[in-house]
Amino acid sequence: MQEGKNIELEMYEIATNFIAKRYPTGWGGVAVIHTEDGQFLTSVSIETANASAVLCIEVGAICEAHKLNARVTHCLCVVRDDENSPFKVLSPCGICQERLRFWGTDVKVGVTTPDNSLKYVTLEILQPYHWTTAYPIEELERYKKE
């Protein structure tokens, strides 16, 4: 991390600026992922008339991180209902939590708060009873390809 930079706030700024540019009117949403090597990867949800073909907003950036073989450190999803609405942080759904957990329990994710403040927690805090705790870490590590 560069001296004096706040990754979490920078991710929020990237997200809100991207939403304003990509979605000048109406609904908008973007995910930003930060990687251990300092990259910021962004993605949006797929727009389709068939709701069953839609993917979470984070999926594109998660796939990009895998493609680059880059370790994810942070993930943030921001939406707004329309151009006159405030931005909202969405906690990752259960499937995206599973996808992000590939990089470990210390991945920090933006979470929804009652006062709409910017807050990140680790997956370990978000998932205190995750199913993987039933297995030795060595067993789970075999699914990672370095």
Automatic annotation (TrEMBL):
Domain of life, source organism? Bacteria
Keywords assigned: Hydrolase
Enzyme Commission number: 3.5.4.5
Q: What InterPro entries does UniProt report for this protein, alphabetically?
A: Cytidine_deaminase-like (IPR016193)
KW Hydrolase (keyword) present: yes
Any GO molecular function: cytidine deaminase activity
Q: What is this protein called?
A: Cytidine deaminase
What range does the record give for the signal peptide?
Answer: none
Organism expressing this protein natively: Metasolibacillus meyeri
